[in-house]
Design goal:
Blueprint lengths: L8 H22 L5 H23 L2 H40 L8 E3 L5 E4 L6 H22 L14 E2 L2 E2 H4 L6 H21 L7 H20 L4 H8 L2 H12 L14 H44 L8 H26 L8
Length: 352
């Protein structure tokens, strides 16, 4: 029996293979992003390399060559398998990430893989979600009612003027007689809703987002509490809850995902669905796409007034234009998603 020596080229090749396997394992262990599967496979590859090295040191040359070939084949197959598994996991991770970034309208409409709107979303059985929806439908009513009682006329109608006596109408028609009642009711609603989501996270699709949104809103509404002259800002921003109410009502009043005036759908239910859906679309475009951009202009003007008064742009109002731009961006994105899915649902005959 001929043993391998350090000068044997076969032994040197095996040694290099062992070193390469050791480096691969070390790199895999040092990288926190490495999957557990890849760590296991690199460990196995290193073990096999050392086994072949041991066999080379104690076997005839012909066997050594055979073992080297087997090792190379085995190592190649192991690395290929690891690469395929990593690729598969990467695709799954990307898919999960994309689903987390889904559009708001997917919570209320049935959307296919091509992002075509197929109709109202048929709701699965979820008691926590149903109770949470009805809580919102009831709790939002006093919030909306107390908000509207602080205005001289309906802000949704715009009062017929964009500006009054050099000031934007939205700041002139706010009298704030019921502001404290409105403020405390809003705070109570937000706190109760946060507790609801924390205790029953299955009641919403994105509990973390809801909680973060409510916490940010609570911080935001403290500005008019400390500066009552900005009470109109809270009232104007909270007008969007009118649209939110119709958004939730569309889902709650049509859990089966029926289409109005189709076979099997009662006429009364069809008219109710039509009214709620129409109010949803009207308030969506009027408030989110009309009033909110107008409100940004008012907020920027108020920020400039405050900057001039205190002598610095870094003041209490500085954060409000940033928040408003974020709201407008989200509203535009959701609107594009809504229109895109509806247009795609018309089919290729419409040229889409």
């Amino acid at each position: 029996m001929v043993n391998a020596t350090p000068m044997d080229p076969v032994f040197e090749a095996v040694t290099r293979a062992v070193h390469a396997a050791e480096e691969a394992k070390k790199a895999a262990d040092d990288d926190p992003k490495t999957t557990q599967l890849l760590r296991t496979l690199t460990s196995r590859a290193l073990e096999e390399a050392r086994s072949v090295q041991l066999a080379v040191c104690s076997s005839p040359r012909v066997n050594k060559r055979q073992n080297i070939a087997e090792f190379a084949t085995l190592l190649g197959e192991e690395l290929k398998e690891a690469a395929e598994e990593s690729l598969h996991e990467g695709i799954e991770y990307a898919g999960r990430t994309m689903r987390k970034a889904k559009s708001l309208i997917e919570d209320h409409f049935q959307i296919d893989e091509a992002f075509r709107m197929l109709g109202p979303l048929r709701q699965d059985s979820n008691l926590a979600r149903d109770v949470h929806d009805w809580f919102n439908l009831v709790a939002l009513l006093p919030v909306i009612a107390l908000n509207l009682k602080n205005w001289s006329c309906s802000i949704i109608l715009g009062c017929g003027h964009w500006s009054v006596e050099g000031k934007y109408a939205v700041t002139k028609i706010w009298h704030g007689e019921f502001f404290l009642a409105f403020w405390w009711t809003t705070l109570a609603y937000l706190i109760v809703d946060i507790l609801f989501v924390l205790l029953l996270p299955q009641c919403v699709r994105s509990p973390k987002v809801i909680v973060q949104h409510h916490v940010a809103t609570i911080g935001y509404i403290f500005i008019p509490l400390f500066r009552p002259q900005y009470g109109w800002l809270m009232g104007a921003c909270m007008i969007v809850e009118v649209n939110t109410w119709f958004l939730i009502a569309r889902r709650s009043f049509n859990k089966r995902g029926d289409k109005p005036f189709t076979t099997g759908v009662p006429v009364i239910k069809s008219f109710r669905m039509l009214i709620v859906s129409s109010c949803f679309y009207v308030t969506w475009f009027v408030i989110r796409l009309g009033f909110y951009p107008y409100l940004l202009v008012v907020i920027v003007q108020e920020w400039l007034f405050e900057t001039k008064r205190v002598g610095t742009p870094l003041n209490l109002i500085a954060i409000t234009p940033v928040f408003q731009c974020i709201f407008i961006f989200l509203n535009i994105k959701w609107t594009i998603d809504l229109l895109r899915s509806k247009l795609k649902s018309q089919g290729p005959s419409k040229g889409l």
